[in-house]
Design brief:
Elements (H helix, E strand, L loop, with lengths): L1 H16 L5 H15 L4 H9 L9 H18 L7 H18 L9 H18 L7 H9 L4 H20 L3 H5 L1 H12 L2 H5 L5 H8 L12 H21 L10 H16 L7 H6 L2 H8 L5 H15 L10 H12 L2 H12 L7 H7 L6 H22 L11 H12 L4 H16 L7 H4 L2 H16 L8 H9 L3 H25 L1 H17 L6 H22 L4 H20 L5 H18 L3 H14 L14 H23 L1 H5 L2 H13 L5 H17 L4 H20 L1 H5 L4 H7 L2 H11 L7 H4 L2 H38 L4 H27 L21 H7 L16 H25 L6 H4 L1 H11 L8 H17 L6 H30 L29 H23 L35 H9 L1 H16 L3 H18 L6 H17 L7 H15 L5 H7 L6 H13 L3 H11 L53 H4 L9
Helix pairs in contact: 1-2, 3-4, 4-6, 5-6, 6-8, 7-8, 8-14, 10-12, 13-14, 13-16, 14-17, 16-17, 17-21, 19-21, 21-23, 22-23, 23-27, 25-27, 25-29, 27-28, 27-29, 28-29, 28-30, 29-31, 30-31, 30-32, 31-33, 32-33, 33-36, 35-36, 36-37, 36-42, 37-42, 37-43, 40-42, 42-45, 43-45, 43-47, 45-48, 48-50, ...
C-alpha cells in the first residue's frame, strides 16, 4: 500500500510538472495532492519520499513536496495532541539524520531549493522540540559546517539563519510562544566564548551548560565571530579565483566563492540586530563587514550592506561613550573603515580608489543594476552613520576624520542619480541641523558647493522630461517604472534639496542670501535669454532663492539686519531695472519681488518703482496681439497678469497702512487699469481686490475704512441686488433659459454626429454668434459669484489672522449683507434644483452631459494633475463647448458654496434674521436625492461645518433642531446603502494609488482613454471623500478643548454620584460646549448623529473609520457618566467596533480599534454589564472565558496590558488580510462578509422635501423603540 501511495504521489507531481499535461489533468493531480496532505498515511510516506537514502531515485520536486508535508504536520499537529511522544521523538531523530545526510559529503548533489526546504523543516522541529528533545542541535549544525565545503556550509547556515529570523525578526506564532525556551540556547550558540564565560550565571549560561559548552573538552560554536571572519575569507577567495585562470585550492571557482560569501553574510545579518554589543565587538563585526564591502563582487557588496544596515540601525544610548556607538565609530573613523567605504563606493563606479577627485569624475558615468544596488547600500550605510551615530542628541563634538566624512557625503550629493543624491541630502540636513556639527569648519567649507549642487539638482528634476539621454535618466529608469513614480521620486528629491537650502540659510543667513542674490544677478547680467535651458536654470535659481530668503529672513539678528536688507535691496533694484520679454521670466521677476517684500519689506525709495512695475505687468500682452485671446500666447499673457495682480494683493496685505497714505493715487491707477480693455472680468475683480485688501487690513479708523469699502463693493452689490438678477432665479426653467440651454440644445440637434468637428464647419455665423453670447452670459455670472467670494473671504482671513472676531471688519459688510444674501440663497436653491432630471426633459438628451463630472474634475478627484483644454476658439468643437459649459457650472456651484460658508463669519446678525432662517434650509436642501457625492462633500466641508459650528445658542432650536436630524439621517443612510452597493460590486483596493499621470483622460473636451479611470474607481473615490467629509464634520462638532498647560489641577476629591461607582474615565471638556450639550440633550437630534458615527466606523474606509473611532472615544469619555447612554456605548458602539475589528479591510488599524474597545469596556465595566453581554454573543465565546478575561482585566493597571488582554480575547474574531487567508496558523480565524447593521425607527425616517422639519411630538415617543440597534453582527 505504501509503495502504491508513493507512486501515486510521484505520478501526480509528474503530471503537474509535465508540459504535455492538460489543465484538467493538472487539476485532478492537484486535488489528489491536497487530499493526500490530510490522510493518515501522509506522514510516513512523506518521511520516506524526503529521505535521500531510502528513496534515492525520487525527483527533486517529489522530495520538496514531501518536505512541505512534513513541515505542515509539525506546524499544525505537534501541539494539538495528534502526535504521540513516540512520533515526536521519531521526527526529531529523522530531522537530525536528514541534516547529516543533506549537509554531508553528498551535499553538492542536493539541489539548492531542496536544501533550503530541509532547513525550513528542521527549524520547524527545532522551534517545538529544542532544547528538550534535541540537546545536540548546536553540535550537529556546527559539525556539518566544519566540513568546509560550500554546500555543507550553506545547509548549516540556512538552518541557522531561518531559526534566527523566526525567533527574533519575524512574527512567528510558534516561536513567540516558546521564546523563553529558544532565546537563551540560541544566544549561547552565537556568542564568542569570552563573552559567554562572563554570563555563566544567567539563562544564557544555563543553556550553554545544558548543551555541554562548559567544562573539559567544551566546544563553542561562536557563530558571530566565525561568520564575520569567514565572510572576509570567502571574499578573499573570490578575489583570488577571479585573478586565477584555474580553480583555486579545493577546486573552487569564483562563482562558488561568491555564493559562499553571500551565505555567510545573510546568516550574520539575521543576528546583528539582537546579539549583545559586546559579542559584536569581540567578533570585530563592523570592521570585517566593511572590509568585505571592498570586494569586487557587486552581489557580495550588496549582501555586506544588507548585513551592516540593521547593525547600524540599532538604537544607541544617548552618551558619546555608549558601547554601540563606539562599536560603530571606532572602526569607521579610527581604524580605516571610512576609507573602505569610500573604496567600495568607488569600486561600484569602476574606480577602486580612495581619491574623491578621481571618484567624482568616475561617478558621472552610469553603472549596471547590480552595481547600482551596491552603491545604494553603501550610501544608506553612510547616511545611518551620520544621522544616528555622529549627530546624536548629546554629541559634544565630532569624531576624528569628520572632515573626510563630510567630503564623502558631498561627493555622494553630486551623484547623477536623484535617489542617491536625495539620500545624501537627508544626511546633510541632519548634520546642518545638529548643534555639534552645523558650525564646524569642515561643514562651512562645503556650504557654497552644497547650494550649487541643490540648484543643479533642482534644474535636473524640473526638466526630466526634456533632458537628453544621460546617466540621470537611466538611474531614474531603474528607480521608477511609471511616470507617476518618476514624479513622486522627483518631488521627494527636490524637497530634500530645498530642506538643505533652508538649513544652510539658518546657519549662515547673510552668506546664503548673498550667494543666491549674486547667482541671480549673474543670470540677469547674461541677458534676457530665450532657450529652454536658460529659462530652466533661472527657474531653479529662483526656487533656491525663494527658499533661502524665506528661511534666512527668520534667522537674521540685529547685528547683520542692515547688511541683509541692503543685499536684498540691491537685488530688488536689479529686478526693477530688468526688462524680460518671455512670460515665464516675467513671472520669475514677480515672484522674486514678492519674496523679497515678504522677507525684508520694500524700502521706501523703491516702493513706487515696485508698484509701478507690477501695474505694468498687470496689463501684460504680447506685442501686436489682441488683449483677450484664447491662444497659447494669450494664456501665457493671462498668467503674467494674474501673477502680477496676486503680487499686488500680497504687497497690499503686507503694507496696508503705507498704501493708505496714498490710497487715492492707488485707486486712480486701479480705475485706469480696470477701465481698459486688457483685463477680463475676473482679472478686474482681482485688481479691485487689491484695493479691498488695503482697506481690510489697514489700522485706519472704521468710518474712514467704511467709506472706502462702500466705494469698492457697491458696483458689485448693485449687480446682485438688481431686479434682473432675481428674475432668472424664479424657477429652474428660467435659469436654464438664462444659461442658454435652449440655444445649445438646438445646436446639439443640428450638429448630430458631427460633435467632434469644429463648430465653424457645422453651423452658420449667426448660430455661432448666439453660442458665444450664451457663453459670455454664463461667464458673467461666474465672474460675479467669484468676485463676491473673493471680497468676502477677506473676512475669513482676518478671523484667522487675529484668532478672534474683529467687529471693525464685520461691520464693513453690515449695510450690504441683506442686499446680497437673498440673491445668494436664491441662486443656491436654483443650482440645486437644476440637477433634477425633470428640468431637462424639454432639451436634447446630449445636453445633460453638463451635469456630469468633467474629465479634469475626475483627474483631480484621483489626485492627478488636470490637463488644459485647447485654447484656440476658432477650432472649438461642440464637445469642447459642452465641456466648458460643464466646467463653468461646476465652478459656479463651488464658488457659491464658498460664499455660503463665509456668511457665518459675518456676525450673529446673519443668524438672527428671519430672512436667513426661513430660507437657508430650503436653499441648501431643495433636492437632496439629486445631489451627487461630490456636491455633498463640498457642501459639508465648505457650508455646513461653519454654519453649524458658528451657530449662536439662541438659534439652536429654530435652525439646528430643524436641520440636523433629517440631514444626518439622510446622509448616514445614504452612505450605508452606497457602501453596501460598492461592496457588492467589489472594492477597488489600491487601484487609485497606481494611476499614472500619462494614463487616463485628456483635458476637458478632448477624446481620451476613459477606460484607464473607470466610473467605478471614480465613484469609489468620491464616496470615500464624502465619507471622510462627513466624519470630519462630526469630529469638529465634538471637538475637545485643549488643556491649558498653565492651569492648576484640581486635586479635591469629587463626591460619587449616587450609590453606584462612576464610570472609569475622565469626562472631556468640549470646545463647542453649548452646541454639544444641545445635541446630546435632545434625543431627536442626537440619535441620527450617533447612528452616523456607527456608519462611519463600519465602512471599508480606514481613514474615515479612524476618525469615527476618534469620535467614539471622545463621546465615550463623556457619555459613560450618563446612564441613559450606556446602551448605546455598550451595545451599539461596542458592536460596531467589533464589526470593524472583524473586517479584514481594517487590518492596519486594528490596534486603534482594540484601544477603543478597551477604553469603552474599561469605562463601562464598573457601571454596566452590557459590554460583557455583547462579548457573550460572539462565536466560540462562553461565560467562563469572559469571566476569566474580566478577572485578568481587573488585575491589569497599564493600558497596554489591558489592550493585550482584549486582543487575546478577540483573536478568533479579528480579521486578517486576504493575502493571509490560506496561511496555516495555529489559531483558526473567522472570515465573514459585512452585514446590515442599522435599524432606524420608521418614525424617524422623514421624506426629505427640502429636508423638512420634524413634526412636534416625535421626541416623546418610547425611547426603547427609538434606540439604535445592531443586527446580525456575525453571520
Amino acid at each position: 500500500m505504501a509503495s502504491l501511495s508513493e507512486s501515486q504521489v510521484n505520478d501526480a507531481l509528474a503530471t503537474i510538472y509535465s508540459p504535455s499535461a492538460s489543465n484538467q489533468q493538472r487539476k485532478a493531480a492537484q486535488a489528489f495532492l491536497d487530499s493526500f496532505r490530510s490522510s493518515p498515511s501522509a506522514l510516513p510516506i512523506a518521511l520516506s519520499l524526503a529521505h535521500p537514502i531510502r528513496t534515492p531515485a525520487a525527483p527533486p520536486e517529489t522530495r520538496h513536496y514531501a518536505l512541505s508535508v512534513i513541515e505542515d504536520v509539525v506546524r499544525t499537529n505537534w501541539e494539538s495532541g495528534t502526535l504521540s511522544d513516540q512520533d515526536k521523538a521519531g521526527i526529531v531523530a529523522y530531522a537530525e539524520e536528514l541534516v547529516q545526510i543533506v549537509g554531508g559529503e553528498h551535499a553538492a548533489q542536493v539541489q539548492q531549493f531542496v536544501r533550503e526546504k530541509v532547513a525550513k523543516v528542521v527549524v520547524e522541529v527545532v522551534k517545538v522540540a529544542w532544547p528538550e528533545m534535541w540537546q545536540g542541535l548546536y553540535g550537529t549544525v556546527l559539525g556539518i559546517y566544519l566540513r568546509n565545503t560550500p554546500a555543507s556550509q550553506d545547509t548549516a547556515l540556512s538552518i541557522l539563519r531561518t531559526l534566527c529570523e523566526d525567533v527574533f525578526l519575524y512574527d512567528d506564532p510558534v516561536a513567540a510562544r516558546r521564546k523563553k525556551h529558544l532565546v537563551p540556547p540560541l544566544q549561547a550558540m552565537v556568542l564568542p566564548a569570552s563573552v559567554l564565560s562572563e554570563v555563566q550565571d544567567s539563562d544564557v549560561g544555563e543553556a550553554a551548560r545544558a548543551m555541554g559548552m562548559f567544562g573539559e573538552g567544551a566546544v563553542f560554536s561562536e557563530w558571530v565571530p566565525r561568520l564575520a571572519e569567514a565572510a572576509v575569507v570567502w571574499a578573499q577567495r573570490y578575489e583570488a579565483a577571479v585573478d586565477s585562470p584555474t580553480p583555486i585550492a579545493g577546486g573552487l571557482d569564483a562563482c562558488e566563492c561568491e555564493k559562499a560569501a553571500e551565505s555567510h553574510l545573510r546568516a550574520l545579518a539575521s543576528m546583528v540586530e539582537w546579539v549583545p554589543v559586546k559579542g559584536l565587538a569581540e567578533g570585530k563585526v563592523v570592521y570585517r563587514v566593511v572590509e568585505v564591502l571592498a570586494c569586487r563582487s557587486a552581489r557580495v557588496r550588496v549582501a555586506a550592506s544588507a548585513t551592516l544596515l540593521p547593525l547600524l540601525s540599532r538604537t544607541p544610548g544617548p552618551t558619546p561613550d555608549d558601547p554601540l556607538r563606539l562599536l560603530v565609530l571606532t572602526p569607521l573613523f579610527s581604524q580605516g573603515g571610512l576609507d573602505l567605504l569610500v573604496s567600495s563606493y568607488g569600486r561600484a563606479h569602476g574606480c577602486p580608489s580612495t581619491d574623491l577627485t578621481v571618484i567624482r569624475e568616475a561617478q558621472r558615468r552610469d553603472v549596471g543594476e547590480e552595481e547600482y544596488a551596491a552603491v545604494k547600500g553603501v550610501v544608506q550605510a553612510v547616511g545611518v552613520v551620520g544621522e544616528d551615530h555622529v549627530c546624536f542628541k548629546r554629541a559634544g563634538g565630532v569624531p576624528e576624520n569628520f572632515g573626510r566624512f563630510v567630503d564623502f557625503i558631498q561627493l555622494i550629493t553630486e551623484h547623477p542619480s536623484p535617489t542617491i543624491a536625495a539620500m545624501a541630502l537627508t544626511t546633510w540636513h541632519t548634520i546642518l541641523k545638529h548643534e555639534a556639527t552645523c558650525q564646524t569648519v569642515e561643514v562651512a567649507t562645503h556650504l557654497s558647493a552644497l547650494l550649487e549642487t541643490v540648484t543643479t539638482l533642482t534644474f535636473t528634476l524640473d526638466n526630466l522630461s526634456s533632458l537628453p539621454p544621460s546617466a540621470t535618466l537611466r538611474y531614474v529608469g531603474m528607480d521608477a517604472t511609471t511616470s507617476s513614480d518618476v514624479r513622486q521620486l522627483a518631488l521627494a528629491a527636490r524637497a530634500r534639496g530645498l530642506d538643505v537650502v533652508k538649513a544652510v540659510s539658518a546657519i549662515k543667513p547673510l552668506h546664503t542670501c548673498v550667494w543666491v542674490a549674486r547667482k541671480l544677478a549673474n543670470r540677469m547680467q547674461m541677458g534676457v535669454g530665450g532657450d529652454a535651458l536658460w529659462v530652466g536654470m533661472m527657474h531653479a535659481e529662483v526656487v533656491v532663492f525663494e527658499s533661502a530668503v524665506k528661511a534666512s529672513g527668520k534667522m537674521v539678528d540685529e547685528t547683520i539686519m542692515s547688511q541683509y536688507k541692503e543685499e536684498l535691496a540691491k537685488t530688488l533694484s536689479m529686478l526693477i531695472a530688468y526688462q524680460p520679454t518671455l512670460p515665464k521670466v516675467v513671472r520669475f521677476v514677480i515672484h522674486l519681488t514678492t519674496t523679497i517684500a515678504e522677507a525684508a519689506g520694500i524700502p521706501p525709495d523703491l516702493l513706487f518703482p515696485v508698484v509701478e512695475k507690477l501695474f505694468t505687468y498687470s496689463i501684460y500682452v504680447y506685442a501686436g496681439e489682441a488683449p483677450v485671446t484664447n491662444t497659447t500666447r494669450g494664456s501665457e499673457a493671462r498668467d503674467v497678469r494674474m501673477t502680477s495682480i496676486s503680487a499686488l494683493v500680497k504687497v497690499g496685505t503686507m503694507m496696508p497702512d503705507t498704501f493708505m497714505g496714498f490710497y487715492d493715487k492707488v485707486a486712480e491707477e486701479i480705475g485706469r487699469v480696470v477701465g481698459g480693455e486688457v483685463l477680463t472680468d475676473l482679472e478686474k475683480a482681482q485688481m479691485v481686490d487689491f484695493a479691498m485688501c488695503i482697506v481690510y487690513f489697514s489700522s485706519y479708523p472704521a468710518d474712514q475704512k467704511q467709506t472706502l469699502f462702500d466705494r469698492i463693493v457697491e458696483p458689485y452689490i448693485a449687480d446682485w441686488a438688481a431686479p434682473g438678477f432675481a428674475q432668472f432665479l424664479t424657477s429652474p426653467a428660467t435659469f436654464l433659459q438664462f444659461l442658454g440651454c435652449g440655444q445649445v440644445s438646438d445646436v446639439i440637434m443640428l450638429v448630430g454626429a458631427r460633435a467632434e468637428e469644429p463648430l465653424t464647419a457645422v453651423v452658420d455665423i449667426a448660430t455661432l454668434t448666439t453660442l458665444k453670447q450664451c457663453e459670455h452670459t454664463r461667464r458673467k455670472l461666474y465672474y460675479l459669484v467669484q468676485a463676491l467670494w473673493m471680497f468676502l473671504k477677506r473676512t475669513l482671513e482676518v478671523h484667522k489672522k487675529t484668532k478672534s472676531d474683529d467687529p471693525s471688519v464685520v461691520n464693513l459688510w453690515l449695510s450690504h449683507l441683506w442686499k446680497i444674501v437673498p440673491s445668494v440663497l436664491g441662486l443656491a436653491r436654483i443650482i440645486h434644483l437644476i440637477w433634477e432630471p425633470v428640468n431637462w426633459e424639454q432639451y436634447a438628451p446630449g445636453l445633460k452631459v453638463v451635469l456630469t463630472m468633467g474629465n479634469n474634475e475626475r483627474r483631480l478627484a484621483m489626485s492627478l494633475p488636470s490637463k488644459p483644454a485647447p485654447l484656440d476658439s476658432a477650432s472649438q468643437t461642440l464637445t469642447q463647448h459642452l465641456a466648458a459649459f460643464r466646467s463653468l457650472l461646476t465652478n459656479i456651484r463651488e464658488a457659491l458654496y464658498h460664499i455660503l460658508g463665509i456668511l457665518p463669519f459675518c456676525g450673529d446678525e446673519i443668524y438672527n434674521d428671519s430672512r436667513f432662517l426661513d430660507v437657508v434650509i430650503p436653499a441648501l436642501f431643495p433636492a437632496p436625492f439629486c445631489m451627487e457625492d461630490r456636491h455633498w462633500r463640498i457642501l459639508i466641508n465648505n457650508v455646513l461645518r461653519p454654519l453649524i459650528i458658528g451657530c449662536p445658542q439662541g438659534v439652536f432650536t429654530p435652525l439646528l433642531e430643524q436641520m440636523l436630524p433629517p440631514l444626518f439621517d439622510f446622509v448616514g443612510r445614504k452612505l450605508d446603502n452606497d457602501w453596501k452597493v460598492m461592496a457588492e460590486k467589489g472594492i477597488q483596493e489600491n487601484t487609485t494609488e497606481t494611476m499614472d499621470e500619462d494614463e487616463g483622460l485628456d483635458g476637458d473636451g478632448n477624446q481620451g482613454d476613459e477606460d484607464e479611470i473607470t466610473d467605478e474607481i471614480v465613484n469609489e473615490r468620491m464616496l470615500r471623500m464624502l465619507t471622510g467629509a462627513f466624519a470630519d464634520l462630526i469630529v469638529h462638532i465634538f471637538e475637545v478643548k485643549k488643556p491649558d498647560p498653565n492651569a492648576v489641577k484640581d486635586t479635591t476629591e469629587q463626591p460619587k454620584k449616587g450609590p453606584r461607582a462612576t464610570a472609569n474615565v475622565v469626562a472631556p471638556e468640549f470646545l463647542h460646549k453649548s452646541l454639544t450639550e444641545f445635541i446630546l440633550a435632545h434625543p431627536i437630534v442626537r440619535r441620527p448623529i450617533l447612528a452616523s458615527v456607527l456608519v462611519i466606523i463600519m465602512q471599508p474606509d480606514s481613514n474615515a473609520a479612524k476618525t469615527g473611532i476618534r469620535i467614539a472615544t471622545r463621546l465615550n469619555a463623556f457619555l459613560a457618566h450618563h446612564i441613559e447612554f450606556h446602551e448605546f456605548l455598550g451595545k451599539d458602539l461596542f458592536s460596531a467596533m467589533l464589526k470593524a475589528l472583524h473586517d479584514p479591510y481594517h487590518i492596519e488599524m486594528q490596534p486603534v480599534i482594540l484601544n477603543a474597545l478597551t477604553e469603552v469596556y474599561s469605562s463601562l465595566r464598573p457601571v454596566s454589564n452590557i459590554p460583557r453581554e455583547v462579548l457573550a454573543t460572539l462565536p466560540q465565546m462562553d461565560e467562563g472565558r469572559i469571566y476569566d478575561f474580566d478577572k485578568e482585566f481587573v488585575k491589569k493597571t497599564a493600558v497596554k496590558d489591558q489592550v493585550q488582554a482584549m486582543k487575546s480575547l478577540l483573536s478568533k474574531v479579528t480579521g486578517v488580510s486576504i493575502s493571509q487567508w490560506f496561511k496555516r496558523e495555529d489559531l483558526p480565524t473567522l472570515h465573514t462578509t459585512r452585514t446590515a447593521f442599522l435599524r432606524t425607527p420608521q418614525s424617524q425616517r422623514k421624506q426629505l422635501n427640502g429636508i423638512g422639519k420634524l413634526e412636534d411630538g416625535e421626541a416623546g415617543q418610547d425611547d426603547k423603540d427609538a434606540e439604535l440597534a445592531l443586527e446580525n453582527l456575525f453571520e
